[in-house]
């Protein structure tokens, strides 16, 4: 057998591990999807009792969803703001790293510290700090700041990778053709790094949207969706919660699918029409 | 280089440019004058500072000292977009997200020309460069030769005073290069734009340039017309860098009637001083003799002679190169016109000599 040909046993082993991992990743979510379609008398565990859209209907009509509507809106707005801020800050931070400056190594590690810091500690610490300063914590002020500090390292790393693959000669070519630095960034750099920017925006959105630990102490009295869901879990567990989970997941998948289609269209446009 | 007021006729003047990166000196005291519509080649091995010099002219690097004048105007502190230049990069640096027509028109767009005017001019230029049929394509759909044309069209559309070219044909297939070189030379003559062409390939430099600047270790070793540099290398580096030179190291002996005796490990040779002052006896020096200037079995009148053993014979079609070895590890190259019948084989002992005026004495001590 040629050394490049993979043996059958290896193929099977690797295949089983891969599929096992994917199952492990998706099975809990899939359980929730399935149970959300339980019948009227269905519970939150297997075996399922009938199949219906009852819990979705109830969700739409019942008061319970009214309780969820404001946190959902807050979470959505917060995630959007966090996403936008993360994009701006991480593009700037990665641009700064391109230029190299004194202490850029320290700057790099300090920015990445946000990845290592435990969420509970960050949230709690920030809450103590704001109390000391006499600032009332709310979802759109203190929680927003903490969320950005959480999403920024991810966005920063993404943008670093994007700029690593970016050819600075393209900018230089634009400069020698009469473009000033702002124009060169707008016309050359930005369109080329755009896919990475969209990736960063998605990171910023999803990291903020489902953040619990950091929000818990910083959101004040008006909570976000994860806080509301946890509170409801403490009170009463019904398939309605599963329905909410399924809906939000579906929403995220839709957004990701839209982005993927956008990337695909763009790549096709760059390749141009076949000649 | 003469100091003083800017000469308006010059397209480019560099006055004592210096550039260093930390402890590394990239450009050391480079001065250069480029007349109107000249084709200048910066030639040298990689890392010699030729590209950094070019980037200083473009404004992409800021020299630590010295002045840069373009068209007689001081531009040392000006950014690239305010300089009357365009640049062509080795890998062409085409914008991947723009069609050919769009990026060729980019320079005009930056000049805020009206849209209709840009479209007309782009169509004209694309036609002139024979790439009109590629107008709607993107760089990923172009071949190397097509990319090169697009990059050239993009750079030349605004008719800058100077076009800077950083190894512009280095990325092309070897078979394409000769054609492209001829085209570029013709284009340069026709347009009257000064070309500053950076290369490590001496064939490019000497066949294209009106003026060749040979650089080494951040400094200009020699500059002048191609035939002047080829026939009269001024330093051991230049002689060694140009193919087909035999460089000899030795010490100065007596000089008489403009002829210097040089004592080398391989014997005593007579070299004309030409315009150089006679060095003091015992000074280390170098001189060179072109490989095709050597004479096989020289007559009695030839005083410079060597006995050598032929090591290798290489046949290149146009000429036949013999590598010979002498006493003390001396290596000598001897080129013979390719159409002549081979006259020596590997292992043969031969005597080679050269006419006195074939020797070229270098200035300065041996490197």
From TrEMBL, chain A:
Q: Name one Pfam family in it.
A: BPD_transp_1
Task: Read off the CDD domains from this record.
Answer: TM_PBP2 (cd06261)
- Localization per record: Cell membrane
Which SUPFAM superfamilies does this entry report, sorted A to Z?
MetI-like
Gene3D superfamilies named in the record: MetI-like
Q: Which residues cross the membrane?
A: 12-38, 75-94, 106-129, 141-163, 184-207, 241-265
Q: Which UniProt keywords apply?
A: Cell membrane, Membrane, Transmembrane, Transmembrane helix, Transport
Q: Taking every annotated instance into account, which residue ranges of this chain make up the domain ABC transmembrane type-1?
A: 72-259
Q: How does it sit in the membrane?
A: Multi-pass membrane protein
Please give the InterPro entries that the UniProt record associates with this protein. Bact_Polyamine_Transport, MetI-like, MetI-like_sf
Instruction: Tell me which PANTHER family the record gives.
Output: PUTRESCINE TRANSPORT SYSTEM PERMEASE PROTEIN POTI (PTHR43848:SF2)
Regarding protein family, the annotation reads: Belongs to the binding-protein-dependent transport system permease family. CysTW subfamily.
Q: What is this protein called?
A: ABC transporter permease
Q: Lineage, please? A: Bacteria, Pseudomonadati, Pseudomonadota, Alphaproteobacteria, Acetobacterales
Automatic annotation (TrEMBL), chain B:
**Entries under Gene3D superfamilies matching the protein:** P-loop containing nucleotide triphosphate hydrolases
UniProt GO molecular function: ATP binding
Q: Which UniProt keywords apply?
A: ATP-binding, Nucleotide-binding, Transport
SUPFAM superfamilies in the cross-refs: MOP-like, P-loop containing nucleoside triphosphate hydrolases
Query: Ranges for the ABC transporter domain?
Result: 12-242
Which InterPro entries does its entry note? AAA+_ATPase, ABC_SmlMolc_Importer, ABC_transporter-like_ATP-bd, ABC_transporter-like_CS, Mo/tungstate-bd_C_term_dom, P-loop_NTPase, Transp-assoc_OB_typ2
Query: Which PANTHER family has this protein been placed in?
Result: SPERMIDINE/PUTRESCINE IMPORT ATP-BINDING PROTEIN POTA, SPERMIDINE_PUTRESCINE IMPORT ATP-BINDING PROTEIN POTA
Per its record, how is this protein called by name? ABC transporter ATP-binding protein
Q: Which organism is it from?
A: Roseomonas alba
Q: What is the lineage of its organism?
A: Bacteria, Pseudomonadati, Pseudomonadota, Alphaproteobacteria, Acetobacterales
């Amino acid at each position: 057998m040629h050394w490049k040909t993979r043996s059958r046993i290896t193929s099977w082993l690797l295949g089983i591990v891969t599929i096992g991992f994917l199952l492990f990743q998706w099975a809990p979510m899939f359980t929730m999807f399935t149970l959300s379609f339980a019948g009227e008398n269905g519970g939150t565990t297997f075996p399922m009792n009938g199949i219906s859209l009852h819990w979705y209907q109830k969700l739409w009509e019942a008061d319970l969803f009214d309780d969820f509507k404001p946190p959902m809106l807050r979470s959505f707005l917060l995630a959007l703001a966090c996403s936008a801020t993360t994009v701006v800050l991480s593009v700037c931070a990665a641009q700064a790293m391109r230029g190299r400056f004194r202490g850029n190594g320290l700057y790099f590690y300090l920015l990445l510290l946000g990845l290592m810091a435990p969420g509970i500690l960050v949230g709690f610490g920030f809450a103590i700090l704001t109390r000391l300063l006499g600032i009332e914590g709310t979802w759109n002020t203190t929680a927003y700041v903490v969320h950005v500090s959480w999403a920024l390292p991810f966005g920063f790393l993404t943008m670093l990778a994007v700029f690593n693959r970016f050819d600075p000669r393209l900018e230089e070519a634009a400069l020698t053709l009469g473009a000033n630095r702002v124009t060169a960034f707008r016309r050359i750099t930005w369109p080329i790094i755009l896919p990475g920017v969209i990736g960063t925006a998605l990171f910023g959105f999803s990291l903020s949207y489902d953040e619990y630990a950091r929000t818990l102490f910083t959101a004040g009295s008006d909570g976000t969706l994860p806080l509301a869901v946890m509170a409801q879990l403490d009170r009463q567990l019904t398939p309605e919660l599963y329905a909410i989970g399924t809906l939000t997941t579906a929403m995220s998948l839709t957004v990701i699918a839209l982005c993927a289609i956008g990337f695909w269209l763009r790549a096709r446009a760059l390749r141009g029409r076949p000649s | 280089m003469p100091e003083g007021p800017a000469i308006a006729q010059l397209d480019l003047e560099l006055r004592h440019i210096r550039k260093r990166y930390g402890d590394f000196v990239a450009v050391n005291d480079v001065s250069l004058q480029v007349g109107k519509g000249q084709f200048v080649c910066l030639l040298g091995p990689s890392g010699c500072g030729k590209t950094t010099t070019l980037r200083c002219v473009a404004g992409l690097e800021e020299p630590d000292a010295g002045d840069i004048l373009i068209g007689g105007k001081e531009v040392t502190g000006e950014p690239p977009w305010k300089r009357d230049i365009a640049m062509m990069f080795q890998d062409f640096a085409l914008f991947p997200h723009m069609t050919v027509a769009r990026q060729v028109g980019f320079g005009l767009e930056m000049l805020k020309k009206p849209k209709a005017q840009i479209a007309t001019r782009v169509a004209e230029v694309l036609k002139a460069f024979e790439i009109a049929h590629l107008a709607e394509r993107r760089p990923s759909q172009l071949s190397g030769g097509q990319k090169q044309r697009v990059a050239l069209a993009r750079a030349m559309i605004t008719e800058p005073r100077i076009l800077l070219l950083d190894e512009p044909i280095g990325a092309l297939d070897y078979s394409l290069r000769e054609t492209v070189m001829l085209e570029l030379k013709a284009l340069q003559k026709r347009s009257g734009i000064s070309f500053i062409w950076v290369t490590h390939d001496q064939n490019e430099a000497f066949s294209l340039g009106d003026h060749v600047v040979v650089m080494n270790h951040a400094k200009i070793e020699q500059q002048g017309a191609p035939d002047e540099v080829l026939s009269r290398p001024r330093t051991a580096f230049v002689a060694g860098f140009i193919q087909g030179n035999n460089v000899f190291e030795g010490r100065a002996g007596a000089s008489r009637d403009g002829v210097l005796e040089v004592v080398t490990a391989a014997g005593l040779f007579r070299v004309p001083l030409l315009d150089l002052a006679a060095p003091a006896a015992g000074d280390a020096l170098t001189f060179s003799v072109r490989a095709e200037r050597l004479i096989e079995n020289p007559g009695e009148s030839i005083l410079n002679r060597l006995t050598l053993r032929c090591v290798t014979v290489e046949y290149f079609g146009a000429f036949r190169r013999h590598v010979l070895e002498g006493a003390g590890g001396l290596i000598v190259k001897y080129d013979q016109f390719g159409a002549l019948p081979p006259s020596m084989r590997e292992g043969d002992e031969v005597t080679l000599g050269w006419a006195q005026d074939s020797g070229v004495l270098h200035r300065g001590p041996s490197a």
